[in-house]
Amino acid sequence: MGTGRARGTMRWLVLGASVLVIGGCATPQAVERASAKADAALAHSTTIEGQVAAERQARQALAADLDARLKTMSADQTRLARRLAATDARLSADEARYKRRFASLEARAAQPSPATGPVAVSEPAEADFMATLVKRARNAAAHPYQPPKAVSTVLTGMDYPAYERLRFKGAVPGWPDAALLHPSFYPAGYLFHHAVKIHLLEGDKPVALEFPVGDFNFDTAVAKQIAGPVPLAGFSLYYPFNQGAGVNEFLSFLGASYFRALGKGQAWGLSARGLAVDTAVPHHAEEFPYFRDFWIVPPRPGANKLEFYALLSSPSFAGAYRFVVQPGTQTVVDVDMTLFVRKSVKRLGIAPLTSMYLQGRDGGPRFDPLVRAAHDSDGLSIETADGRWLWMPLRNPKRLAVDEMSFDGIKGFGLMQRARRYADYQAWGMEYQKRPSAWVTPTGGDWGKGRVVLVELPTRTQTNDNITAFWEPADRPKPGEELKFSYRIAWQGDQQTLPPLGHVVSTRSGHAADGDETYVINFRGGDLDDLPAWVHLEPVVSVDGDAKLIRSWTAKNEATGDWRLEFTIKQKGNAASRVRAHLAYGKRALTETWDAKLPLD
pTM here? Predict the structure, then answer.
């Protein structure tokens, strides 16, 4: 009522003022116009008042919300302060308790023992099993070599598809149910003509593993002809790389002394061997030692490491091996070996690696036109004892090629797969970009003087392993001699061992009509990545042999960020020439050394 009366009064006051403004001549039309203006002014005033009231309410609500939040934050801070104080108190109490415990242990250690003699500590018998196995190998080397007997032709007569379908489906007695690592077993047959013995080693009780034919999915016709336990050719190990997604095979020992491994996300590729004997010796057959017995130590529940032992035999050697494997992003295989020499050999290869190289992505003969590249490894990397890094690009030669590089010692070597993109290969389903590199690191002492030997054989298919690399000691072993070596093989994927300097990422070559040969090497990494294109780097190219360096230059490729080294040589004869090349700034090398025998067939 009061508000309505006030608005009415205001309306007539405005109307009266309007009439007065008219100058005393109050016509009906003028009054109506004045009344309309008054109504509009009142409506606008009402709108303004409503907006002001709404804004006042919003501000009041915001202030209330901020006040509530501040109170909540204050309460949270109080609770956090109390929790921190409680944690500090608990840690202080734990520290005081541990100090008292350590003081008590030190006091006990200072007191004389009442025992009259030393106290025996119980340890697993497998801790001494290597010593037992070394004695067996020494004794075996003192006797003539006995070749293994071949298994039944029922098994060796299987073709590849039939053997590939075989799966182990049995249980392993004594294997912990809660173990993360699980074994599987290969039956003898197909190319694997000799049986091996596999044992579980728990304490001092090795137990031979034997499996009936029903533990493998043989064809019915073949199964009926197998009497007794199935002869075994090797074993594999499985591990859950991805929790909750099943287990993955990551290690395989099958055939002679061959074994291979892979890490998380990798695909099967190159292999390793326990020993290489007389490899690529002219007019001399290669000898293939084999693992004839295995002893596997069951893992503790939850452990991600596995230890096992093997006895190696060949006409020239007997050896005891201890392996410790640990799967992961890069799977690691530690090897300790003791060899006893039965007879002299022409060449002994330690930590041999075996791979395949058919064709590269940047030139050379094309044996498979449907893919850009096909290889398990694209180069041999070496770190010398004095800190030099060498890179030797692999090739598929026209004839057997053997390269021996002598060193006073090495820190490591490996067959590497540096090209890690699908586009590098364009080989659908082959997963070359996921195949591992294998880096060998000597452990347990210096290997001394010797040679890294690279053997390359010609091949026309992707199924032939035509690449081998190994360490050869400078001194040939003598009959009756004992040799010890320890090393680690890291099976690496995208994260692999690279020099701290710039490293080679690709090698290309071309032949001119006049016989000149041009090579283009791309480098990346190290200090190179931070250098602008205007910096002048020196191309350092040396040629040994029947060839002459014509020209060389280097520049940064702005499109890729790589540094390009190009040089041209002229062959004077048919003999191969050794060329070494790297980039330098002043006298300081900025890259590893590209090292190859040319021409690259």
Answer: 0.79
